[in-house]
Amino acid sequence: MTKSAGASRFRGSEAANGLAMISPTATFALLLLAAPLATIFIYSFMTDGYLEIIRDFTFANYVEAWTKELYRVIMLRSLGVSLAVTAATVLLAFPVAYFVSFHVDASRKSLWLFLITIPFWTSYLIRVFLWKVILGYNGVVNSGLLGIGLIDEPLTFILYNVNSVVITLAHAYAPFAILPIFVALEKIDRSFLEAGRDLGESPFMTFLRVTLPLAMPGVISAVLIVFIPTVGDYVTPQLVGGPEGQMVANLIQLQYLKLDNYPMGSALAVTAMGIVTAFSLLFLFLNRRYLKGAK
Fold this sequence. Notes:
- By secondary structure, the protein is mainly α.
- It contains 13 helices and two strands.
């Protein structure tokens, strides 16, 4: 009777109602996210055969992924590109979000946010192609610099290399960084800033000790939103990266679709996910240390 009464109380509790509400979404996520990830993880420990996967457990795929020079170079390049894009995007996004939050009239903030989201109106693929036109040998940048006499011949280092990948990705992910930082800045109680100034702090020190720590939730969101997907970006390196700008997603595509080596491609994918997770956790740890020091 006791167990029956306890089960009856649980079914009528808020926890049971909450579980009932989220169960369809949780099941959907489990089927469409967890199951494919688990499959890739299992494949990474199998052996590649001729047009088939041999179910022999092995660590050879990970050994090759971590020791082969080509894979190491591309993995490090992907990580470096993603870190560069994240740093450039967040550092450029913060002043924009700060200006809109603190210096734009409340009645016009919606207009500014509307303008910031305009890039979402066009396909991501079209935006990448536009950057290919802008940075090309006879593109807008080279034609403009030649026209005003700053260069004598077209620049070749701005396309089909890592530079072009960083520029294109930084532009593509800029709105994703601006919006969460803006939301965090909007939540800051302006009386805190006034109190800092009343206590004799300069505007710069008030920003460092009050504004920036309170805005860190938005900065964290922006960093993770930009860093995590850019490591595995495939389209941009493929179209504007050239041989020098290929990243780990292009390598995984090569293993899966060209070489039909699912175990090796899975090992590279799991390795990339592990690296992204490690760097994300490291950033969260360092941010926590920073916030503790700012208090």
